[in-house]
């Protein structure tokens, strides 16, 4: 699949990226290469192939789900400039 310069500029605009003409041509070639690789990968027959979570067919070792830390909430809140009802108070940043 090939992508043209206008598509690259449109994608850049949507992503709020400033591209000049030379950059657009470079990205055009790069994106076309990526899309060609994706097309090539999609053409591979994967019928009967089971999905793997690990290429070595091993199970993942998991630790036991136990509490290892004590409750130190009051210690942490003591360092905060402002707290209320056991919560950190921060300045409002969105109106």
Strands, helices and their partners?
Elements: H1 5-14, H2 21-42, H3 73-78, E1 83-84, E2 87-88
Antiparallel strand pairs: 1-2
**What would you report as the Rg, rounded to the nearest angstrom?**
26 Å
Query: Which strand order does the major sheet show?
Result: 1-2
Strand content: under 5%
Largest sheet: 2 strands, antiparallel
Order of helices and strands: HHHEE
CATH class of the domain at 5-42: Mainly Alpha
CATH second-level architecture of the domain at 5-42 = Orthogonal Bundle
Give me the count of strands.
Answer: 2
What key phrases describe this protein's structure?
single chain, mainly alpha, two-stranded antiparallel sheet, Histone, subunit A, 3 helices, 95 residues
Any overview of this molecule?
It is a single chain. The protein has 95 residues and is mainly α. The protein has a domain at 5-42: Orthogonal Bundle (Histone, subunit A). Helix content is 40%, strand content 4%. It contains 3 helices and 2 strands. The chain has helices at residues 5-14, 21-42, 73-78, and strands at residues 83-84, 87-88. A two-stranded antiparallel ribbon has the order 1-2. It is flat. 1% of the residues are buried. The model has no long low-confidence stretch (mean pLDDT 89).
């Amino acid at each position: 699949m090939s992508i043209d310069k206008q598509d690259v500029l449109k994608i850049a605009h949507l992503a709020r990226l400033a591209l000049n003409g030379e950059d657009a041509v470079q990205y055009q070639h790069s994106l076309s290469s990526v899309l060609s690789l994706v097309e090539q990968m999609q053409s591979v027959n994967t019928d009967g192939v089971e999905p793997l979570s690990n290429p070595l067919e091993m199970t993942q070792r998991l630790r036991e789900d136990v509490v290892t830390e004590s409750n130190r909430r009051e210690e942490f809140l003591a360092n905060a400039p402002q707290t209320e009802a056991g919560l950190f108070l921060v300045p409002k940043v969105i109106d």
